[in-house]
């Protein structure tokens, strides 16, 4: 069984909000295991986990892979990522 995602702080900081939205996207996709997401994105499980941790802004390549692995559309995320960067 996959380890649950860590809870993010109750904050509206852009980075935390972005990470929270990535976690929500994953939840809406049925909480696929990071291992499965890694297979679909060619990213490591650690990279994917760090993407939704809210501690550091992930690279666009990571966000793109994360979103695609959750069945999302990266076009919906690029502007939000740029605003955090």
Would you kindly provide a written description of the structure presented here, covering whatever features stand out?
It is built from 5 helices and no strands. It has helices spanning 14-28, 34-41, 45-51, 60-69, 78-84.
The gist of it:
The protein has 85 residues and is mostly helical. It is built from 5 helices and no strands. The radius of gyration is 12 Å and the shape is globular.
Give the topology, please.
Blueprint: H1 14-28, H2 34-41, H3 45-51, H4 60-69, H5 78-84
Helix pairs in contact: 2-3, 2-4
Helix coverage percent of residues? 55-70%
Ends: how far apart?
34 Å
Oligomer: single chain
**Secondary structure category:** mainly alpha
Low-pLDDT regions: none
Largest sheet: none
Describe the global form. Answer: globular
Query: Approximately how much beta-strand content do the residues carry?
Result: under 5%
- The tally of helices reads 5
Q: Average pLDDT value?
A: 91
- Give the number of DSSP strands: 0
Radius of gyration: 12 Å
Helix/strand order: HHHHH
Task: Give the key terms.
85 residues; mainly alpha
